[in-house]
């Protein structure tokens, strides 16, 4: 099985996340894509997160009906900082028959050099990097300093294109808190969940 692994805060999951996952599934011929909400992202420890339960519920709503998409609470159950290398090690034991593909958005690609044990990550999984049509991610930064020529070539061979969609979970949270619309930014089911559960809404102090 060719298994795509897509980690992130997903606070909330939005249509950009879903389009990235589907683009990778199609272009890398993946059998499944697992969404793994992070317990604590080592590079985003000051982020504003919904509760674990809310984030899992929103992911489940967003991917309902797509049999290739699944939500895994692996990192939430492990707790602590969510290091990708530990997740991949765990997945090798859980699904030893799977060939692992790590889905990385263009915004995260620039930080790969700083990821914990990036060399081992490249041994455990194939990195699928996503960019907009026509881009080729020429800015490798300091990545060639820590990866072999073969590993760099492997990353370049698994470049995935997707339409440019400028959505940000940070912006979506801000829009919710200020009472602005998020219609068509997230699936309708997620929008309704956020509305009914009052996720990300400003709390009004009692008079």
From TrEMBL:
The entry's keywords: ATP-binding, NAD, Nucleotide-binding, Nucleotidyltransferase, Pyridine nucleotide biosynthesis, Transferase
GO molecular function, one term: ATP binding
CDD domains documented for this protein: NMNAT (cd02165)
The EC number(s) this enzyme carries: 2.7.7.18
Pathway: Cofactor biosynthesis; NAD(+) biosynthesis; deamido-NAD(+) from nicotinate D-ribonucleotide: step 1/1
GO biological process, one term: NAD+ biosynthetic process
Catalytic EC class: transferase
Annotated ranges, domain Cytidyltransferase-like: 5-175
Annotated catalysed reactions: nicotinate beta-D-ribonucleotide + ATP + H(+) = deamido-NAD(+) + diphosphate
InterPro entries to which the protein is assigned, alphabetical: Cyt_trans-like (IPR004821), NadD/NMNAT (IPR005248), Rossmann-like_a/b/a_fold (IPR014729)
Gene3D superfamilies associated with the record: HUPs
Family: Belongs to the NadD family.
Chain's role: Catalyzes the reversible adenylation of nicotinate mononucleotide (NaMN) to nicotinic acid adenine dinucleotide (NaAD).
Full protein name: Probable nicotinate-nucleotide adenylyltransferase
Organism: Bremerella volcania
């Amino acid at each position: 099985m060719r298994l795509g692994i897509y980690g992130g805060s997903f606070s909330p999951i939005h249509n950009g996340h879903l389009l990235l996952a589907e683009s990778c599934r199609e272009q890398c011929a993946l059998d499944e894509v697992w969404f793994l909400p992070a317990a604590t992202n080592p590079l985003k420890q000051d982020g504003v997160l919904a509760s674990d339960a809310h984030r899992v519920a929103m992911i489940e709503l967003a991917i309902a009906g797509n049999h290739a998409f699944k939500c895994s609470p692996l990192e939430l159950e492990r707790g602590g900082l969510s290091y990708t290398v530990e997740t991949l090690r765990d997945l090798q034991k859980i699904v030893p028959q799977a060939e692992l593909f790590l889905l990385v958005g263009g915004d995260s690609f620039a930080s790969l050099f700083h990821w914990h044990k990036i060399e081992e990550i490249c041994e455990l999984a194939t990195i699928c990097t996503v960019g907009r049509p026509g881009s080729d991610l020429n800015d490798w930064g300091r990545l060639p300093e820590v990866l072999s020529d073969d590993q760099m070539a492997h990353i370049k061979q698994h470049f995935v294109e997707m339409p440019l969609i400028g959505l940000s979970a940070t912006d979506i949270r801000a829009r919710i808190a200020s009472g602005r619309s998020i219609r068509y930014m997230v699936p309708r089911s997620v929008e309704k969940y956020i509305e009914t559960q009052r996720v990300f809404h400003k709390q009004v102090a009692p008079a």
